[in-house]
Design brief:
Number of strands: 6
Number of helices: 7
Radius of gyration: 18 Å
Distance between the termini: 29 Å
Strand content: 15-25%
Order of helices and strands: EEHEHHEEEHHHH
Length: about 220
């Protein structure tokens, strides 16, 4: 079972400029698309984490509440954040739609919501648009300074898809899943030898495969 973070020791109110990105639900007809919704959640969180003055809960903390029925106020208390981003992803027939809402952990009320839909080939632009819209909603509420997020990547979708699938297997943390992750990262590199994130994912994977807890790969091989 996943470990759920313990309640924060302090009972002081969560920092106003704080947010957790909960795993976006896979609303597609195909349950195997879960890796895609998880990957988009992580990438949107990474975009928000670049914003000065905005405190963003770590992936491991927010993903502990995946498919959880814990009340948003309790999640906010455990993660010590003032707002939660939640929603769902529907991937179908060459398009992807993301519906998200920003929720106050103080009272559980919705603060903002919006839907986005793009062709799969525009997924990089889509995740940047979602992060920018969330940032603007948080900025307007809490007075954050204006911030420009990095320009969307222009990489091919099949390259990015292989990378997301690699990260999905990587986070499952078994020797078999790590071997699958390595294959996915190598596939992304074969499609685009200049894709730095895929090399980073492959390096992360081999580090774990070289430890006794996760794998049995020899030190020299790693």
């Amino acid at each position: 079972d996943r470990a759920v973070p313990a309640a924060a020791a302090s009972q002081d109110p969560a920092p106003e400029r704080s947010i957790a990105v909960l795993p976006l639900a896979n609303l597609s007809d195909d349950p195997t698309n879960e890796y895609f919704s998880d990957g988009l959640s992580e990438e949107i969180r990474n975009q928000l984490a670049r914003v000065p003055g905005l405190q963003v809960a770590a992936r491991r903390s927010s993903f502990a509440f995946k498919a959880s029925d814990v009340d948003v106020r309790e999640i906010g208390r455990r993660l010590n954040v003032a707002t939660l981003l939640e929603g769902g992803v529907r991937k179908h027939a060459g398009t992807v739609r993301i519906d998200v809402q920003l929720v106050s952990t103080r009272d559980g009320f919705h603060l903002w919501s919006q839907g986005f839909e793009r062709r799969l080939e525009d997924v990089f632009r889509l995740q940047t648009e979602v992060a920018a819209a969330v940032l603007e909603a948080v900025r307007a509420r809490h007075g954050l300074e204006a911030c420009t997020l990095p320009a969307p990547d222009e990489r091919r979708f099949d390259v990015y898809n292989a990378y997301l699938l690699g990260r999905h297997h990587f986070h499952r943390r078994s020797e078999q899943s790590l071997q699958k992750a390595a294959q996915c990262f190598e596939q992304a590199i074969a499609l685009d030898p200049g894709y730095a994130l895929a090399y980073s994912g492959l390096a992360d994977t081999y580090v774990l495969l070289g430890t006794r807890y996760y794998g049995t790969a020899g030190t020299a091989e790693v």
